[in-house]
C-alpha cells in the first residue's frame, strides 16, 4: 500500500523508473493546465484589440446618431403645387416625422421641388403611432405600411442590443487580459452591422410602399444624411467584427514574426 506513495529504491540503490515517470507526468499535466488557465495576451495584441475596439465604437456612435434622427428620407411636393408663396415637405425616420412649411422665395430657382429641409420655416413634428395604437401614418394622402416600418425599427433595436453585447465581450477580454471573449464579441459586431443594413433596406421598401399607395399628389423623394450615416456605421461594425476575428486567431499574421523559444534537451 505504502509503495504507491513512496518511491522505493531497488537493489542497486536507484529510484524506480515507473514512479519517477509517474511523478513527472503528473507534474507536466499540472504545469500544462496552469499555463492554459493563465494564458495572457501580449501588449502588442492588447494594443491592436484596443484599436479595433475604437473602430467599432465609431460605428456604434454613428448608428446611435443616425437612428435617433428623423432625417432618413425627405418627401417634397413641387414648390408651386399649392399656388401660393409657401410649399410643404416631410422628413421622417424610424420613430418620428416632421412636416415643414417653407417659403418658395427661399428655394433655389433651379429646384423644382420644395426643400431642402435645412431652409428656415415652420416645423410640426409628431411621433408615429405604430408602437402605441398601431395606426398607420398618412403623409400627403399616402398611407404608410406599418409592418415594414415596425420591422425596420425592430431590426434597428436588435442591432443596438448586439452592439452592447459585443462591447461587453471586448471590455471583458481587455480587463481579464485573455482573448477568449474576442470571438463572441466579433460575432455580435458583425451581426449588428448586418442588422443595421437590413434595417435600411426594409425602411427603403417602406418608403416605396408609401409612394405607391396614392398618386394624387406628385412627390419627390430622396434618402437623407441619416441613412448615409447609418449605412457607414453598418460597414464599420462589420469591418470591426472581422478585425476581432483576425485578432482571436491562434496564429495571427504578426505572430509569425515573433521569436519562438525552443527548449532543447
Automatic annotation (TrEMBL):
Membrane topology of this protein: Multi-pass membrane protein
Checking InterPro entries in the record gives:
PMP22/EMP/MP20/Claudin
Q: Where is the signal peptide?
A: none
Q: What is this protein called?
A: Voltage-dependent calcium channel gamma-6 subunit
Q: Which PANTHER family match?
A: VOLTAGE-DEPENDENT CALCIUM CHANNEL GAMMA-1 SUBUNIT-RELATED, VOLTAGE-DEPENDENT CALCIUM CHANNEL GAMMA-6 SUBUNIT
Mind listing the GO molecular function terms for this protein? calcium channel regulator activity
Q: What superkingdom heads the lineage?
A: Eukaryota
A GO BP entry: regulation of calcium ion transmembrane transport via high voltage-gated calcium channel
Q: What is the lineage of its organism?
A: Eukaryota, Metazoa, Chordata, Craniata, Vertebrata
Question: Which positions, given as ranges, span the membrane?
Answer: 51-73, 150-174, 186-203, 223-247
Where would you find this protein in the cell?
Membrane
